[in-house]
Design a protein that fits this description.
It is built from one helix and 14 strands. The protein has 202 residues and is mostly beta strands. The chain has a single domain, classed as Galactose-binding domain-like (Jelly Rolls, Sandwich), CATH 2.60.120. It is globular. The structure holds calcium ion (2 copies). The site of one calcium ion (CA) has 7 residues, from β4.
Length: 202
Amino acid sequence: MKYSCSKKVRWFLAVAIFAGLVGADDGRANLLENGSFETGDFSGWEVFTTENGTVGQVGFPNIMEFDTNGNGKATNSARFQVGQHKFETAGDTRQGGGLYTHFTGKAGILEISVDVACAFSSNTKRRNLDGGLFELLLDGETLNRFHIGPIHKGTTKRGTLRASSPITAGVHQIRIRITRPFASMAAPFQYVDNVVVLQKPD
Ligand SMILES: [Ca+2]
Ligand SMILES: [Ca+2]
């Protein structure tokens, strides 16, 4: 799985954010509105939870400044603290939630990228056994995933979910699902930023 940014991509991303554009370096526009949460809220997005999942305690999810893509600059990012709503050791233990949105595309190929990160701080625990599984879904189909796995306190792990996929003309759904097989209380934070959906040029 490819989840690291090349230097060139990071540089272009930094310039795009600086310019307030957040699209492609070649001028293509992001098909999503508020894909980088720079409105400071969840405008354009819907939050969801899985069957026995939570996206965090009271006040979650929220928008926080965080350097999700690791370029040294913190920007508004969506923050979650996912896990099981009610602790279960049997069945589908991986629970949580995330966010989704719809966009209109034309027939062709989509190029999608999403920056994700996980940070863990704790006064009592040395590490957490699972920072979360991030999944990128297009119309309900998982195109890519990035598993944080165990994370030590005081550390941050980052990744970029990338995918390309053919689409038909019309309305489609992008979803980012984050799950953990444990309770959400005192869990690591998960961050999402720079959800970019581009139409590949003909
Ligand atoms: Ca942002
Ligand atoms: Ca950043």
